[in-house]
Write a sequence for this structure.
C-alpha cells in the first residue's frame, strides 16, 4: 500500500519507447543502459528489469550499485564505469562484475583473484577525470595488462567533455590513436565506446561498437536534439491544506514572501527532503493544479511547500498537484532552468522517501 500521496510515477512505456528508438538508430551497436544514481531517480531494480530484454549491458558508477543489480539478476552484464578501491576488487571478482580499470596495479590485483575478471580499459582523452593518458606509456601498460592470463579485456573506452565540435573531435582522435596503436600490435577489443546520450545523436560517426545511454532512456533531450523521446517521470502531490491570507502577511520561514493582496495559500506535502530544489521559489517556480500554474511562494521546507492559489478559484483541498510533468507542460528541462541546474541533477536528487510507482 502506498503510504503517501506524494510520489513519482514512472511510465514504463516511455522508457521502452526511448530504448527502441535508440535500437532503430543504431542497429549495429550494442547498447549500455546507464542506470547509475538509482536509474536517474527512476528506481534502479525496476528500470533494470524493464530494460533487460532491450539492452546488452548495464552501466553503473559504483560497486554498491553493481552489487544491487547482481543480487537480483546474477547473470546481468554490469559494468562499473567508475573507480573501485583496491580493497574491494575481490568483491567485483566474486560477483562477476565488469570493472573499468586504468592501472597495471589494479589489473594485477584482479588477475590474482580466484575467477577470471572481465574489464574495460579507460582512456583519458581530455576530460581529466579517469583513465590512462593517451600516450605511448599507456599503450605499453595496456599491452602488459592484455598479457595477463586471468583477465579478459573486453572493452576500451573514453568519455567526451562535449566542449564543442573541435574539442570533441580531438578527443575522439586521441582515443582512436591509442586503439590503433594497440591494433598495430595485434591487440583488439570487442567493445570500443565513447558516446553518451548527447554524443550518440551529435556524432553518429563516433558510435563504434557500443553506446552508453543514460539521459536518453529517460527522455532527456540535449540542446538542439530533435529525437522523439518521451519523458518517463511525473511527480505528483495534492493540496493538503488551504489558508486565507491578508495583504502584507508573510508565508514560510523568515516571511521572505509577503502577499501582495488578500488571497489563498495552498500547502503541498513535498519538499527538499524529497529532492525538490530549495531555490525554486526564488526563480519563479510553479506547480500545475487543474491545468493551471500555481506559483511557489516562500522558502521551500524539507517536507512541504506553499503555493499562491488566489487566482485558482476552484482549487480545493485534495486536488491533484503536478510537481513535475512534461504532459502538462512542466518538463524536467523547465524545472532545471528554474532551479538553475541541469536535468540529470533534478532527476538524480529525488530521494528515497518519495515513493516510485510504475505504470
Ligand atoms: C553517466 C555516464 C554516461 C551516461 O551519460 P548520459 O549523458 O546520461 O547518457 C555515459 N558514460 C559515462 C562514463 C558516464 O559516467
Amino acid at each position: 500500500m502506498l503510504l503517501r500521496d506524494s510520489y513519482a510515477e514512472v511510465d514504463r512505456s516511455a522508457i521502452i519507447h526511448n530504448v527502441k528508438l535508440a535500437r532503430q538508430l543504431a542497429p549495429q551497436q550494442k547498447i549500455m543502459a546507464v542506470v547509475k544514481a538509482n536509474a536517474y531517480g527512476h528506481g534502479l531494480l525496476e528500470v533494470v528489469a524493464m530494460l533487460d530484454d532491450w539492452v546488452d549491458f548495464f552501466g553503473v558508477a559504483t560497486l554498491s550499485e553493481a552489487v544491487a543489480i547482481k543480487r537480483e539478476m546474477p547473470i546481468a552484464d554490469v559494468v562499473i564505469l567508475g573507480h573501485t578501491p583496491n580493497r574491494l576488487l575481490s568483491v567485483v571478482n566474486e560477483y562477476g562484475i565488469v570493472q573499468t580499470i586504468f592501472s597495471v596495479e589494479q589489473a594485477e590485483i584482479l588477475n590474482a583473484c580466484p575467477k577470471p575478471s572481465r574489464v574495460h580499459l579507460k582512456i583519458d582523452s581530455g576530460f581529466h577525470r579517469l583513465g590512462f593518458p593517451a600516450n605511448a606509456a599507456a599503450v605499453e601498460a595496456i599491452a602488459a595488462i592484455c598479457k595477463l592470463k586471468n583477465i579478459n579485456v573486453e572493452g576500451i573506452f573514453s568519455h567526451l567533455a562535449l566542449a564543442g565540435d573541435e574539442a570533441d573531435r580531438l578527443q575522439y582522435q586521441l582515443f582512436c590513436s591509442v586503439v590503433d596503436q594497440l591494433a598495430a600490435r595485434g591487440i583488439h577489443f570487442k567493445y570500443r565506446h565513447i558516446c553518451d546520450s548527447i554524443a550518440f545523436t551529435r556524432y553518429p560517426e563516433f558510435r563504434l561498437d557500443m553506446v552508453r545511454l543514460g539521459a536518453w532512456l529517460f527522455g532527456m533531450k540535449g540542446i538542439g536534439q530533435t529525437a522523439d523521446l518521451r519523458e518517463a517521470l511525473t511527480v505528483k502531490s495534492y493540496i493538503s491544506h488551504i489558508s486565507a491570507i491578508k495583504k502584507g502577511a508573510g508565508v514560510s520561514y523568515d516571511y521572505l514572501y509577503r502577499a501582495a493582496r488578500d488571497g489563498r495559500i495552498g500547502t503541498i506535502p513535498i519538499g527538499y527532503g524529497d529532492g525538490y530544489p530549495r531555490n525554486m521559489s526564488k526563480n519563479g517556480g510553479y506547480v500545475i493544479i487543474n491545468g493551471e500554474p500555481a506559483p511557489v511562494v516562500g522558502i521551500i521546507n524539507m517536507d512541504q511547500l506553499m503555493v499562491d492559489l488566489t487566482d485558482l478559484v476552484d482549487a480545493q483541498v485534495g486536488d491533484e498537484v503536478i510537481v513535475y510533468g512534461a504532459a502538462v507542460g512542466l518538463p524536467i528541462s523547465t524545472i532545471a532552468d528554474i532551479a538553475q541546474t541541469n536535468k540529470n541533477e533534478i532527476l538524480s536528487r529525488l530521494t528515497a522517501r518519495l515513493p516510485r510507482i510504475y505504470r
The CA atoms of residues 108 and 148 lie 8 Å apart. The first strand starts at residue 7 and ends at 10. Residues 34, 36, 81, 159, 196-198, 212-216 surround pyridoxal-5'-phosphate (CB under 6 Å).
